[in-house]
Each structure stands twice: as C-alpha cells, then as structure tokens.
Amino acid sequence: MRAFILKKRGVAEITEHAPEPELKEPYGAILTPLAMAPCTSDVNTVYGTGSRKPENLILGHECVARVVEVASGVRDFRPGELVAVPAITPDWRETAIQEGNDRHAGRPFSGNALGRSIPGVFAERFAIADADTTLAHIPEGVSLKDALMCVDVVTTGFTGAESAEIRVGDTVVVLGIGAIGLMAVQGAALMGAARILAVGTRAVSVRLAKEFGANEVLSYREGDIAAQVLGRTGGIGADAVIICGGDDSALPQAIDMVRYGIGRVVNLKHFPGEGAMEIPKFSGGRGMAGKTVKLELCRGGRARIERLMKMVQYGRIQPGKLVTHELSGFDRIADGLELMRNKREDLVKVMVKP
Prior knowledge:
Blueprint: E1 3-8, E2 11-15, E3 29-36, H1 40-47, E4 57-58, E5 63-70, E6 82-85, E7 126-128, H2 131-134, E8 136-137, H3 144-163, E9 171-175, H4 179-190, E10 195-199, H5 203-212, E11 216-218, H6 225-232, E12 240-243, H7 250-257, E13 264-267, E14 292-295, H8 302-313, E15 323-328, H9 333-342, E16 349-353
Parallel strand pairs: 9-10, 9-12, 10-11, 12-13, 13-14, 15-16
Antiparallel strand pairs: 1-2, 1-4, 3-5, 3-7, 5-6, 6-8
C-alpha cells in the first residue's frame, strides 16, 4: 500500500510498498483516512534533531478516518463508521494512568507514539491498538475540518489554557499564534480570561486571534515583548503566559512577564536540540518568585476528543476556520508538509483529502 514515510533524517517520501497494518486482537481496528493534516510536529520529526526513529516510519498523527475492520473485543465501533483519531493515544490499561499520568504512562511520551515511534496515519490504511478507548465518534453537524482540528490543535491549545488554571478576570499572554496559539487564545477566553494579549505578526493569525478572543495582538517588531506586557499591566505582569511559539528566549521571556506570587507559565512549544531551557535569576526571584512553570504535552483519548467536538456541535468553537489550505490526493501530503515547514504568510493549517 501507499504511505508517506520518513526515509531518513531530512527525507520524507511516498512509498508504494509499505506493509499492510495488522489487526491487533482483541481491541484493535484498521482504518482508512478521509482527511489528514501535516503538522509542525511532523516537520520536527523529519527535519529536527530528536530521538532516533524506526526505519521507514509512517508519519502522521492528525486524521479523520473510516473504520475498515475491528477486532473481536471492540464494542462501540463498526466498519463503515466515520471517526476522529486523537493524536495522543495512551495505553489506557497502564497502571500509571490511574495516578493521572496518561501521557507518560510506562515510559516517557508513551501517549505520543503515533507517527513518531509507531506507524502513523499517513497511509492508505493504518491500525489503532485499542478502538474503544482511542477513537472518537463524530457528532452530527461536525464537519471534517472541525473534527480534524480537534484531534490535535484544539486539544493542545486547550491543554495550555487548562494547565494555566485560568480564572475569571485573569490577564493572559499567548506567545505565538499559529494554530496551537490560536486555540490557546480560544481556550483562555472560554475559561474566563478578561484580557488576552496575543503575540504574533502574520495577518491571517492576527485576524483569527481577535476573532477567537484576543483583546490586543503584540509584535516582536515593536520591541521586547516582556517590556510591552509589563508596560500594559502597570509593571505587575500577566496572571498566566502560554508559550506556543518563538525561539529559545520564549521561556525566560514568559517568566519575565508573569506575576510574582501567583503567576503561571505553561509551555506547549517544542524546544529542539540539546542544552538547557533557562530560568532567569532576577525575574525568577533568584529561586523564590512564587511563579509556576509547567512543561506540557497535550491531552488525548476518546473522551477528551468527543468532549471537544461537543463544543463544535453546540457552537462554542469553530476550529475549522484554522484550515487555510486544502489539498486533494494522497500524493499531496508531501506538499502539505512543505507548506507547514515554510509557513507562508497566509497559512495556518493544511488539510489533505486523499
């Protein structure tokens, strides 16, 4: 079958000879994709410097699919059904999940395996090990675009807002307004933030940030962001900062601009390479600032994605607006990846319909 694979570091291509997926008893399913979204994480997998990947790894972790076959123990899904496939697929039978450790149960990043350490969804057919705990029913009235955005982008952005423990009336800064940052803005607004300062410059993202709840959009081109935030908050700083983009200076900047005593910084950004992620001594109170830093991976699983799609169904969010580019044909996955790599001015997310 055809699949989009990581041939070697820096080289991703379509192959005609990928192995067929195996149905895993008793809970597995085999699916065929109907809509896929190449992601910045896929760019990092192909071109980044992360851990060694399996040979000829099938890429991809954002997908809406049709069920082809299910194993004997599957209760809630049948062949022919249309489903959303969460990007995060924990093994819900791991004991550590009962401790609340759903994303790193058993080993680091165990929930973040799809298209990274196990075969992903960019194939004519792919397997999921546990259908009932992983796949998500798509409610009536939820479009392919909306469902596709929920499997990764919405859940990641909302994870940032939730982990920041936003309270009614908070001032929140969102650093970076690509797709994840835009959903962090939306999540912060829904959780009751009174003032949301988003940071970004691309016109399409600025427009969507304001539509999703940002009061102001700040630009790095107009000076140091921490100084801008402190200036706008009377020197106090923001109640919470959610990092969704930027370079290695993003974390120290966030700590610079968040309040002493109760400030929360949540990082959703991938920091490539080796070395340290630094906390500045001064704004860190030389270790005593009372500021909280969380380094987060997004939440996944069936219940999570189905709840997010309810937010679409009942008109609370419209994440399909993030899809600025649509491509048709399985072979266009490669083009989609390059679009995400090069980030044109008018791009937020790409949807590929094979």
